[in-house]
Task: structure prediction
Amino acid sequence: MGEPVEIDAGQVADQRVVYDAQRARCPVAHEDGAWVALRHAEVVAVASDPATYSSAVSARRAIPNSLDGAEHAAYRAVVDRFLTPERVAREESQCRAHAAAIVDALPRDATVKTIGQIGVPYAVRSQSTWLGWPAELEDELVTWMQDNHAATRSGDRSRTAEVAERFDQMIHGLLEDRRGHPATDVTGELLAESVDGRPLEDEEVVSILRNWTAGDLGSLATSVGVIVHFLATHPDVQREVRGHVASGDHAAVEAAVEEILRIDDPFVANRRVTTREVELGGATIPEGARVLVNWTAANRDPLVFGDPDAYDPVGHAAANLVFGTGPHVCPGRDLTLMELRVVVEELLARTDRIEPAPDRPAVRETPPVGGWARVPVVLR
Result:
């Protein structure tokens, strides 16, 4: 295999280029003191072996993300109860109403900021309605999303910690208000949940809500940017997906969404820590070492997908890692796919064409953030 090679994704505008080249040279790289699994096989191996690659990687206890084994399973069971197919289906009408209103308000034949004018408001409104949060919180959530994104991009841990604390305080305020005004919505139900025979503690409720919103809001908005950019720059795929929308083939639209996100996966990496010395991709990794599973690189592995840029929703579905794999596979996959399918359906049903803005190029995000920072398009 040879020695792991240092990588610096910040030197290239499209970090996928860096990851593709690095993965071709070595399946496991070494970067800033962490071992980075880049090849599909190694990423699956790490994600599927929590006994060797623990998720307890941060001082802040994140439920259920930072938990392992039986403890993870107990809390994951609580989370899964809120994300069943039946419960996801109940949210579709409100998501569709939000998407339709947003798209109808957009100008035609003029530049539209995909992420700021579609992705962000759609994410905030859909998630807030699902959780039963007041509409007047929308502006605060939008501001928080922008600050959190900037903090993540900066790599400054003190800055990200301050933004996270602000979010926690906002959630605590919501919980206090909810106790004074009980409601039968997701937040109210979560307050009544229990684990291992005892009620959830406030910090546990806050952690679950943080997981559902702090990450998902930005992820949903970023995904909208990736999907719209791909459709705008691949008119043949756009025509195909428009056909699925016209025929009401929801499954085909979701498959298209998932494949587009595989090709340009904005969910770059998750962290693990080794519990013992282990061999991975020819590298010897010591106990207590930081390991990153690079989903973006794994989802473009030519050993699995052939040409990583080839659009093949059916042929690539089984190996697609956009929502992860193993015990920590994303519990919100069904909800996220529904939300993305609905906004794509409403956007395509209410337009004839989506084109790249002729005067403003799209701009890639700055690592470690994936996807696009700006996706200007014109709706026809």
Observations:
- Residues 1-11 have pLDDT under 50 and may be disordered.
- The longest helix spans residues 202-233.
- The first strand starts at residue 28 and ends at 31.
- The two ends are 51 Å apart (CA to CA).
